[in-house]
């Protein structure tokens, strides 16, 4: 059996050399969670675009729909529906667009529950939002600001085809 001796100095020097040779980790800001991390919903059932300004996000959504990357089916009672959520009134600040199965309760990520201030369902879609205080607000295309009982207090929501 061969005995290998390590000098403490050699181990420390080797550790410093390895650390110097390794690339420095890229500095980045923590990612803002997207608002559609619905518990128990398979990831393939959700499509999320953003964050971006509302104007940029509208372009991204139009591109995704026209290219076939996102297929919505509002003809089915509970087909995939799309809705914009923005952190400030008048669709300002960070915005996301999400598409997910309609007629399903969506519980936004806690980060977003206290930040949603404007909502814009896609054309032909109606969304009902409930607040922490059990108030509700109905949104239809093109959307609007949350009222004072709903602003920054979204508990959950669901969307369905608008039939009238």
Descriptive terms for the model:
single chain, alpha+beta, 5-stranded antiparallel β-sheet, 3-stranded antiparallel β-sheet, 8 strands, disordered N terminus
Topology:
Blueprint: H1 8-21, E1 47-52, H2 54-67, E2 80-88, E3 92-101, H3 110-113, E4 118-121, E5 125-131, E6 136-140, E7 144-145, E8 154-161
Antiparallel strand pairs: 1-3, 2-3, 2-4, 4-7, 5-6, 5-8
Describe the structure.
The protein has helices at 8-21, 54-67, 110-113, and strands spanning 47-52, 80-88, 92-101, 118-121, 125-131, 136-140, 144-145, 154-161. It is globular and about 40 Å long. With 164 residues, the protein is α+β, with helices and mostly antiparallel strands. Strands 1-3-2-4-7 form a five-stranded antiparallel beta sheet, covered by helices on one side. Strands 6-5-8 form a three-stranded antiparallel beta sheet, with no helix packed on it. It contains three helices and eight strands, in the order H-E-H-E-E-H-E-E-E-E-E.
């Amino acid at each position: 059996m061969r005995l290998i001796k390590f000098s403490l100095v050699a181990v420390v020097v080797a550790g410093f050399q390895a650390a110097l040779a390794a690339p420095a980790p890229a500095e980045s800001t923590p990612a803002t969670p997207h608002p559609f991390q619905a518990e128990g919903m398979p990831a393939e059932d959700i499509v999320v675009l953003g964050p971006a300004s509302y104007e940029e996000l509208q372009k991204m959504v139009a591109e995704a729909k026209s290219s076939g990357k996102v297929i919505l089916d509002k003809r089915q009672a509970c087909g995939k529906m799309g809705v914009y959520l923005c952190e400030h009134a008048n669709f300002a600040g960070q915005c996301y667009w999400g598409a997910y199965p309609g007629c399903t309760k969506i519980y936004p990520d806690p980060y977003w529950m206290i930040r949603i201030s404007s909502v814009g369902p896609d054309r032909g879609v109606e969304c009902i939002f409930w607040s922490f205080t059990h108030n509700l607000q109905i949104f239809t295309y093109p959307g609007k600001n949350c009222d004072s009982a709903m602003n920054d207090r979204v508990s959950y929501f669901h969307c369905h085809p608008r039939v009238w």
